[in-house]
Amino acid sequence: MKIESLKFEGVSFTHEGQEPIVQNVEFDFPMNEILWVKAEEGAGKSSLLQILAGLQIPQSGKYLINGENVVDMSFEEFLPYRLKIGYSFDYGGLINNRTLYDNLMLPLLYHKVLTPEESKARVEAMIKEFGIEKFAQERPAHVPGRIRKLTCLMRAVVMQPEVLLLDDPSVGLGQDSVYIFADHIHRLRKEGWLKHVFISSYDEKFMNLFNYQIIHLDEGQLYFQAVDPEKRVVHL
Amino acid sequence: MTSLLAHIDSLGRSVTKNVEYTARVLLMVYLSLRATIMDRTQGFRQIVGVISAQIYFTGWQALPLISVLALGTGAIILLQSVSNLSMLGGTQMIGNFLIVMIVREAGPLLVALVVIARSGTAVASEVGNMRANREIEALESMGINPLSFIVFPRVLGGIISVLGLAFYFNFIALIGGFLVTRFIQDLPLAFYTDSLMRAFAKEDVLIFLLKNGFSGMIIFVVCCYQGLSVKRSPHEVPQVTTQAVVNSIIFVVVFNLIVTALFYLNQLRSLGVV
């Protein structure tokens, strides 16, 4: 099963006692793109990504994946979609009582997507590629914040999902790690993975490593802005 | 009149709140069991790993403390009962008295209190910190149901640990307590063990399993529930941990009291007293 479309139909979502994040939104997300989710500070970019990941449930409306409303699905019913979605938090999210290596192995072993040997080979190759061998057997609390953030990003892509949702991925990363991570995304996309990438970020330098399109979240509504990859000019 | 109505209103709210809390906790037991059964892709090995870790921390590491507590409790109850029963001329009842006091009543309560103090607090704060650190959301994002990965193994590991600890407590309290007080009292070992064996009935096994099994479940379900109730901030963790301890003690004591009351009512009924 492939994820062919993501669509909001009349979706509204509000955190208790706060302004609505999205209000009665009708939006057909462009597919096979790298989408830069932009909004003002506190407008709800993280919540929007969490709705797309199925981690937040809209109070009303339909969130359609391949035309199927996933809002009312149970955890088990949504699982096949969830396994095709990678999500990285803006902070936190690593399992603290496991080493970085075990954090990366966990989704592969739990869902038995690969044999233990294949999982080990994939994780070890990623650890080498991202240069965190020195910290692999340490727990998150014992490693620098930069390594924690990088591991969180690595875990989001370790399952080689179709949809990748990254919340402020470049914050706290070193410049080298940013390039390595961007290269990794480009390579996986070339290989046919990570077809639909959503990135929420304020870092234009980081975003310029990709050929992105822009989604703007403003006053509870979503707007699409096409971008010319050559000139980086926004066509309104 | 207003004051009386206000009191009734307050009492009603309190009862409703407690009933709602109990219903939510029971719902979590059902959902975690359901999630474990339904989640077909789950790594069984991963869950077994969490269960064995829970048994190690809750059961194995509590053995020294339980040993001291059991020896002390057994010795105290034995000395008091031997001296008092001798005065009343009922030394042959020593076995019945110890089984009732240790196996049925003191054992389950003391073990539960030790487990709440050692492991209940640890579980509530661990799960609370996981929530604050977004580990629970991270598990969900990886397609791992926190109810089957976090709650179920802790509850199952907790039940196994409490049953094991209670068995160990009873054994050490009854045998160790006797040996510790061997130099103070002059009860023959053969008479003592024979009295215990005669007093031991199949109802004791039922009460042992019921009280300790359910105490284990109550403690870990309540502590997981409180831990999961943390919203975002780590400052909530000590608050939910305190609440977990208070609620666990209340639930365990009330449950023990209900089982004891029902058991003795049944005994009185079978004797034709009521």
Task: Please provide a written account of the structure.
- The complex is a heterodimer of chains A (236) and B (274).
- Chain A has helices spanning 45-53, 75-82, 100-110, 116-130, 145-158, 175-190, 204-207, and strands spanning 6-14, 20-29, 34-39, 60-65, 68-69, 85-88, 163-167, 196-200, 212-218, 221-227, 234-235.
- Chain A is an alpha/beta fold and 236 residues long.
- In chain A, strand 9 (212-218) and strand 10 (221-227) form a beta hairpin.
- In chain A, helix 3 packs antiparallel against helix 4 (116-130) and helix 3 runs parallel beside helix 5.
- The longest helix of chain A has 16 residues, at 175-190.
- The model of chain A has no long low-confidence stretch (mean pLDDT 92).
- Chain B is an all-alpha fold and 274 residues long.
- Chain B is globular and about 65 Å long.
- Chains A and B meet through helix 2 and helix 3 of A and helix 4 and helix 5 of B.
Write the layout of secondary structure elements.
The complex is a heterodimer of chains A (236) and B (274).
Chain A lengths: L5 E9 L5 E10 L4 E6 L5 H9 L6 E6 L2 E2 L5 H8 L2 E4 L11 H11 L5 H15 L14 H14 L4 E5 L7 H16 L5 E5 L3 H4 L4 E7 L2 E7 L6 E2 L1
Helix pairs in contact in A: 3-4, 3-5
Chain B lengths: L1 H37 L5 H15 L4 H26 L5 H39 L2 H7 L4 H35 L8 H11 L2 H27 L7 H35 L4
Helix pairs in contact in B: 1-6, 2-6, 3-4, 3-6, 4-6, 4-7, 4-8, 4-9, 6-8, 8-9
